[in-house]
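Input record, target 12 of the design panel.
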């Protein structure tokens, strides 16, 4: 029994035809779908670019811990399937072979038509897949580049769609083709129109339906199916505008879809090598910080250590005048000593009424013998005369990831959160100035938030999300 989701990728909404079938055939399985609508259509793009984009989608989904990958896009299957299969350790299924197999089963005249994108037609993948199994099949392929835009603009039911489909399919009419492969996952959304033009004697093959049967078989073969009776869920992501996606998806799937927008342009364009080590050290002596940072790596199977694990190490002095300088000093310094990848955070509170103080001195604001209570007492004293409206402030976190002895390659990201300093402490969670840092949008101080809630809005959370997008590619860059 395995409740991890199955990942589905497509250039846009087309892959939803496969998702619909998956929900029908595999109701216990959790599903996660990503459509790369921002860079659609894939059909006319060079194969190498489609492969790079596909890897970016895959790397995003791998972080969501998918147990199997379904490439619900014919163009991406043609361009990237063999590469994905060779490099991934989870099972990978494409849409072409299952569709080709079904066409061979269906045809009596042994003449099969294939409509697909320019890229798929150019790759000749359907003809090759069919000829591997049955050399006698005649395959006539037709590029239909106008169909994907019709679907993506939700024009499937318009008069224009009717006319475009009829014009596109004209070369296939009055032939002895008795089976037509819809060789793009977008096309089943136009199925009634296609069937109407081709006539009822032509069997339409929906590659997606066939693909899900193969997925089902592989789940059993690898023993990774979800348990029966489980309540499953489906999550949707798009790199484009969620609004139109939601309209098409909700309509097609018959369920209220609320897709999340994601940017995957910083994802690596090929397989991400495993970490050179299974240990990352967070170069901090502040347990509150370490906890927040470790949460991000918890899902990576990486052991997160902190300076508390290395009590013998000398301190690195924070002599910089900016957060970045100090974070670099800490990351580079400890990476050199430990010969391990080291992540450091330098952060602080910047209060407008105090000209940005305490800033880089936040930890030692109260001077000798400083601690959170003393720092907070000094802050409140300094602001005693300042009216509420003028007590605006922000937290800043700068993270620097360093590899041993390569300071020129440090990865640097920052995040901020804006709020107001209140006169009385509220809440007991978090650390440092959290009980006094009020976030108007939430009506709470940071100390009144759970760790997850704080990470969702905090300066460190924002910086960590940027880091999350970048650090894998950064590792990779270092290897070359
Ligand atoms: O240098 P390390 O060992 O990482 O730990 P530190 O606590 O000294 O960390 P900094 O030098 O970066 O100083 C940051 C100070 O800013 C304050 N601070 C930073 N992030 C905070 C947060 O999320 N909530 C509350 N206070 C925070 C807090 O007082 C920290 O001690
Ligand atoms: Mg410090």
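The sequence produced for target 12 reads:
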């Amino acid at each position: 029994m395995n409740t991890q989701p199955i990942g589905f990728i497509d250039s846009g909404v087309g892959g939803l035809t496969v998702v619909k079938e998956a929900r029908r055939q595999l109701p216990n399985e959790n599903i996660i779908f990503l459509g790369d609508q921002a860079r659609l259509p894939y059909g006319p793009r060079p194969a190498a670019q489609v492969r790079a984009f596909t890897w970016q989608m895959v790397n995003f989904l791998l972080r969501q811990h998918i147990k199997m990958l379904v490439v619900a896009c014919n163009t991406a299957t043609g361009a990237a399937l063999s590469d994905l299969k060779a490099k991934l350790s989870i099972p990978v299924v494409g849409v072409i072979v299952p569709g080709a197999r079904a066409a061979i089963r269906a045809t009596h005249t042994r003449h099969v038509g294939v409509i697909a994108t320019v890229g798929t037609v150019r790759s000749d993948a359907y003809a090759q897949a069919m000829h591997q199994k049955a050399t006698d099949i005649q395959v006539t392929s037709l590029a239909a580049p106008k169909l994907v835009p019709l679907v993506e603009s939700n024009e499937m039911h318009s008069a224009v769609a009717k006319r475009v489909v009829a014009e596109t399919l004209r070369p296939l009419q009055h032939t002895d083709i008795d089976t037509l492969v819809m060789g793009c996952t977008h096309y089943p959304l136009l199925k009634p129109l296609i069937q109407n033009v081709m006539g009822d004697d032509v069997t339409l093959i929906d590659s997606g339906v066939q693909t899900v049967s193969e997925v089902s078989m592989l789940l059993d073969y690898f023993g990774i199916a979800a348990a029966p009776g489980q309540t499953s869920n489906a999550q949707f992501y798009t790199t484009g505008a969620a609004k139109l996606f939601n309209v098409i998806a909700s309509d097609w799937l018959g369920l209220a879809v609320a897709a999340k927008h994601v940017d995957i342009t910083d994802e690596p364009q090929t397989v991400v090598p495993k970490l050179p080590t299974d240990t990352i050290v967070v170069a901090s002596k502040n347990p509150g910080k370490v906890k927040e940072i470790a949460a991000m790596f918890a899902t990576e199977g990486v052991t997160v250590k902190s300076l508390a694990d290395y009590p013998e190490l000398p301190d690195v002095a924070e002599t910089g005048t900016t957060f970045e300088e100090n974070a670099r000093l800490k990351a580079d310094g400890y990476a050199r000593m430990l010969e391990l990848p080291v992540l450091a955070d330098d952060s602080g509170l910047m209060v407008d009424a105090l000209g940005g103080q305490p800033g880089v001195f936040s930890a030692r604001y109260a001077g000798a013998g400083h601690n959170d209570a003393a720092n907070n007492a000094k802050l409140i004293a300094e602001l005693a005369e300042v009216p509420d409206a003028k007590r605006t402030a922000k937290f800043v976190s700068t993270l620097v990831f360093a590899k041993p002895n390569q300071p020129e390659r440090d990865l640097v990201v920052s995040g901020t959160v804006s709020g107001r300093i209140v006169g009385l402490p509220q809440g007991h969670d978090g650390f440092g100035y959290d009980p006094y840092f009020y976030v108007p949008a939430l009506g709470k101080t940071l100390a009144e938030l759970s760790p997850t809630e704080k990470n969702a809005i905090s300066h460190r959370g924002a910086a960590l999300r940027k880091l999350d997008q970048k650090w894998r590619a950064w590792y990779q860059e270092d290897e070359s």
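The chain has a mean pLDDT of 93.
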